[in-house]
Amino acid sequence: MGIINGKHILLGVTGSIAAFKAADLASKLTQLGAQMDVILTPAAEKFITPLTMQSVTGRKAYTESDLWSGEAHVLHIGLGKSADLLVIAPCTANTISKLAHGAADNLLTITALAAQSPLIIAPAMDGGMFDHPATQENLAKLKERGAYVAGPTQGHLASGLSGAGRLLEVADLIGHIRFVLGRRGRLAAKKVLITAGGTQEPLDPVRVLTNKSSGRQGYALAQSAIEAGAEVTLITTPTSLTLPIGARVINVQTAQQMLEAVLKECAQADALIMAAAVADFRPKQAARNKLKKQDGIPQIELEATEDILEAVSAQKSRKLALSTVEAKRPRITVGFAAESRDLLENASEKLRSKHLDFIAANDISAQDAGFNVETNRVTLLFADGKKESLPLMNKTEVAEAILEHVAALLE
Ligand code: CTP
């Protein structure tokens, strides 16, 4: 599950104060199912020991002494050839300079020169060093050759200074790793538009009408689409979730804002997946000032919102009449049906009336499925009458299953 599982990742660690964070990174990647080989440079060994890395990965960690041991005269070739990815985190200005110039003076730089896999560089250095023209030129050269540079971020630096030079947080590094590993996936070069979260309709400046959607299913879809190589645009309402790295994000609050964003974006999309729980009704008039208790219980008049999927389908048919080229996008439209009764009947009706390619029908009356829980049990209903009942799955697995169908339909 997830793109990291089963991958062979080579982690190079260089001599930065942030080297201790590499242990957490190696540990998390191991827990996600990666086979980790770690190489410590001589300077890294001053900050962290091979034993630490071995303890978290369960595998030997390589150091400079391995370069000179008998069995290992082709160690660098072996390590570099078999890896799916080489990540150097933290990567010092010195190692960046060596990589840019093709130096091969330690086990890590030799391995980097021999490696055929994608390379992620996560710089970490003190204030001023990152901004120095020498470092910037070296990074530009590496990017030109296809290296992917993740970070650094702004913040507190070990010297007490503040500025650009901090190693990215481990969760962010993992997001970049997922993105890079996914680049050649089944949805490579495909544009996927995903909506997520529950819309919020203002009653007054502090109150909204909303629903229980957490946004988790939509975010899982965005993450899985990135891992399948898609160019993802995520239109999201406010949620407490971490944004997937690699997605273009458009923040909206109301159903009307989501409608406008979807109509604008879907002109460029190959597929639209509407996972958001969109309000069907909104207060006809939001009060300009906060509603006060002493004014009594307000009578709230509601009005209907526009159905986004229906608007997309109307636009699609309008475009069909105008031009066959424009009409191609979005080629695939997927919806969700949140139902508390007559699940399949209601979902088939939505599949038909919203002109979808398929719909994920979701029984929200179940304790373990639907809104605000980690798992989902969905049945996929297709326009051609096919039906696929998925077992109880976590939302990532549901997302992967849906995207497999999207990819198949796009092929
Ligand atoms: N949807 C939409 N625009 C709306 C409401 C819903 O595009 N104004 C989309 C949802 O994102 C979902 C699908 O339509 O993909 C079905 O949403 P759901 O809430 O289950 O159904 P509704 O069409 O709103 O009908 P009802 O609430 O009456 O069941």
What do you see in this structure?
There is one protein chain. This protein has 411 residues and is α/β, with parallel strands linked by helices. It folds into two domains: 174 residues, 3-Layer(aba) Sandwich (Rossmann fold); 220 residues, Rossmann fold, CATH 3.40.50. It is built from 13 helices and 22 strands. It has an eight-stranded mixed β-sheet, sandwiched between helices. It has a six-stranded parallel β-sheet with strand order 3-2-1-4-5-6, sandwiched between helices. Strands 7-8 form a two-stranded antiparallel ribbon. The longest helix is centred in the last third of the chain and has 16 residues. The two termini are 23 Å apart. 43% of the residues are buried. The model has no long low-confidence stretch (mean pLDDT 92). The chain binds cytidine-5'-triphosphate. Cytidine-5'-triphosphate (CTP) binds next to helix 11 and strand 17.
Q: Provide the CATH architecture of the largest domain.
A: 3-Layer(aba) Sandwich
How many domains make up the coordinates? 2
Which ranges are low-confidence, i.e. pLDDT below 50, for 5 or more consecutive residues? none
Q: Could you estimate the helical fraction of the residues in percent?
A: 25-40%
pLDDT averaged residue by residue: 92
Report the span from N to C terminus. Answer: 23 Å
Q: Tell me which oligomeric state these chains represent.
A: single chain
User: CATH superfamily membership of the largest domain, which one?
Assistant: CoaB-like
Rg over CA atoms: 25 Å
Q: According to CATH, what is the topology of the largest domain? A: Rossmann fold
CATH class call of the largest domain: Alpha Beta
Q: Supply the number of helical segments.
A: 13
